[in-house]
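User: Hi! I'm working on a homework problem where we have to compare a predicted structure to a textbook description. Could you give me the structure for the chain below?
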Amino acid sequence: MSKLPLDYENYVFDLYGTLVDIHTDEEPGSIWEKLAMFYGYYGAHYSAKELKCRYKKLVDNHEKKLKTDLENSTAYSHEASPEIKIEEVFMQLFTDKGIKADNELAVHAGQFMRVMSTDYVRAYPGTGEMLENLKANGKKVYLLSNAQRIFTEYEMHDIDIFKYFDEIFI
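Assistant: Happy to help. Predicted structure tokens:
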């Protein structure tokens, strides 16, 4: 591996597509069957097809609302395509069935789906060594990403790169 120029004191990275290679696929019916079973354990009974359709509709509605809010406000004008808070979608799936779930359960539902839909998540070759080199040379390392908070930290721990970051901004 070639030596990095260390001209700066601070280094800012995005995560997915920059440091981490990930492939997810939410289409297989088996994912929705298992997720419907998960929801059913808590009294929110869905068929796999119903759950998939409702999920996609909620995501679409949240994205449209966010886009409208952005068009009518300057609050997020710096961000071309901010992400919705996906845990709100998972919470609404409980609420739609009359189940009063807490945020922790909604997050767990989202994380369960993420695990089921992830084929792989891995650091690109040399990522760990690069981050370790920056830290060894006294540099500050930051993550700035529009990723979903409910997945990011866990995946960073899993691929053993979380420890290199001074701060994480999502």
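For your comparison, note the following. The chain has six helices and five strands. Helices lie at 29-41, 48-71, 86-95, 103-117, 127-136, 149-158. Good luck with the assignment!
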